[in-house]
């Protein structure tokens, strides 16, 4: 994809459904009794991988545009797949489905693409094993492909070393199949869609925050059944983030981004934009299906650098590539720290972000847990090596809009993972 600098992005965009919520609707609908009807489902490759896995596990899932109907078979209604489950590029599919599979009375294997099979799975293998699961890394390298054999689970209390919604959700889902109570404490609260949605499906789940610290705990007890729901998926703030950034840094722009989820465990980017001096207004705020939603109005702003660290990191972890692009456009220095999780995303995003920013002429220094960006210098067009990471492709497509000369985004088709219509939405603003 070749892109060049522009001015005046104006108009209204509607962002496709939230990736995290779309995955969960399919998974919870599959193990619930009755029909789950999902509107505004994200038809990205990751969520389609989840659908395919549950079809292989015997669930009838009908797709009609962005409306999905899941004919759930109940908590104990999955059947053994006759082949390896293909999880594609999706860490969420892998880690969450493993929690469900650990509690099934059959054996199965799952595997993904090169990137997925390099990502750490020990973080779920350890707690699941502690619960009595028979789960192993087939190549004994702590990564997928995974083999999950039938096992009898018992509840545990797990202190997660990382604030990871995928780890938390994996353990809570296994807890549906365990004897007794299962609980997970994380150092600071990661996205809580699993907790919110499992409760809607009828799970026996509660959450608690420690008053004098940022630690958060979720507790689950097994229940008889979950029950199918009707769900409208809010727009994905992680996808909206590219248009928020574009609206702020492209001269003479004003963009209204409709129906975006602003769950506080996901909305750290809004706070960062505010801290950087961004002109952002939330309109029409409301709550639907337990999730907070708003329309977001952004206007071109003169941004300045900031420091991003600590508990806010899990609430914006997927937005760091685009935040780094905003930081490159902002006057002064931006420091991002406490974000070593970036190294185990679809690519090592400390490396992919800083290498590509440097290629565009930005003064940037990678650190062991983040990066330091000296912004405000003009960017030049460059060849962007996405390494097939969807968020790198989209973040640097926005950087291209303020760079002098042409930018070539290699393998830009990887946006299909989370936002197949990204470039089409973009054209609506020209
Ligand atoms: C996700 C959780 C996050 C995020 C990922 C989606 C989820 O990962 O990076 O894109 O849907 O639970 P971690 O929970 O591992 O930080």
Automatic annotation (TrEMBL):
Its main location: cytoplasm. It catalyses: 3-phosphoshikimate + phosphoenolpyruvate = 5-O-(1-carboxyvinyl)-3-phosphoshikimate + phosphate. GO terms for molecular function: 3-phosphoshikimate 1-carboxyvinyltransferase activity. Residues 5-425 form the Enolpyruvate transferase domain. Pfam families: EPSP_synthase. Keywords: Amino-acid biosynthesis, Aromatic amino acid biosynthesis, Cytoplasm, Transferase. Pathway: Metabolic intermediate biosynthesis; chorismate biosynthesis; chorismate from D-erythrose 4-phosphate and phosphoenolpyruvate: step 6/7. 3-phosphoshikimate binds at residues 19-20, 24, 164, 166, 318, 345. The keyword Transferase applies. Phosphoenolpyruvate binds at residues 19, 91, 119, 166, 349, 391. The keyword Transmembrane does not apply. The active site is at 318 (proton acceptor). Belongs to the EPSP synthase family. This is 3-phosphoshikimate 1-carboxyvinyltransferase. The gene is aroA.
């Amino acid at each position: 994809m070749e892109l060049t600098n522009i001015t005046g992005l104006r108009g209204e965009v509607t962002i496709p459904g939230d990736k995290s919520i779309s995955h969960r609707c399919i998974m919870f609908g599959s193990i619930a009794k009755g029909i789950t009807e999902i509107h505004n489902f994200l038809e990205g490759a990751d969520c389609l991988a989840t659908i395919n896995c549950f079809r292989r596990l015997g669930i009838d899932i009908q797709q009609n545009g962005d409306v999905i109907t899941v004919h759930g078979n109940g908590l104990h209604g999955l059947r053994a797949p006759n082949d390896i489950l293909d999880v594609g590029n999706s860490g969420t599919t892998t880690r969450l489905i493993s929690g469900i599979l650990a509690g099934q009375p059959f054996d199965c294997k799952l595997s993904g693409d090169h990137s997925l099979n390099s990502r750490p799975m020990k973080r779920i293998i350890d707690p699941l094993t502690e619960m009595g699961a028979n789960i192993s890394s087939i190549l004994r390298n702590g990564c997928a492909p995974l083999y999950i054999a039938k096992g009898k689970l018992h509840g545990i209390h797990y202190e997660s070393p990382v604030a990871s919604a995928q780890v938390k959700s994996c353990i809570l889902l296994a807890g549906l199949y365990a004897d007794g109570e299962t609980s997970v404490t994380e150092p600071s609260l990661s996205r809580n869609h699993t907790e919110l949605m499992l409760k809607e499906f009828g799970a026996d789940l509660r959450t608690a925050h420690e008053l004098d610290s940022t630690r958060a705990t979720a507790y689950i007890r097994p229940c008889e059944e979950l029950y199918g729901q009707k769900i409208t998926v809010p727009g994905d703030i992680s996808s909206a983030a590219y248009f928020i950034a574009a609206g702020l840094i492209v001269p003479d722009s004003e963009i209204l981004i409709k129906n975006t989820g602003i769950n506080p465990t996901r909305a750290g980017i809004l706070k960062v934009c505010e801290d950087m001096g961004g002109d952002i207004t939330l309109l029409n705020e409301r709550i639907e299906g337990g999730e907070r939603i708003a329309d977001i109005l952004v206007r071109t702003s003169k941004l300045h650098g900031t420091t991003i660290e600590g508990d806010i990191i899990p609430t914006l972890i997927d937005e760091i590539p685009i935040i780094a692009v905003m930081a490159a456009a902002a006057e002064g220095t931006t420091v991002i720290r406490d974000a070593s999780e970036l190294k185990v995303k679809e690519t090592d995003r400390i490396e992919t972000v800083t290498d590509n920013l440097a290629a565009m002429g930005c003064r940037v220094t990678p650190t062991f847990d983040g990066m330091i960006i000296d912004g405000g210098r003009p960017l030049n067009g460059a060849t962007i090596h996405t390494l097939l990471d969807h968020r790198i492709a989209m973040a640097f497509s926005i950087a291209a809009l303020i760079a002098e000369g042409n930018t070539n985004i290699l393998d830009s088709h990887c946006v299909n993972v989370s936002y197949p219509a990204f470039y089409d939405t973009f054209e609506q603003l020209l």
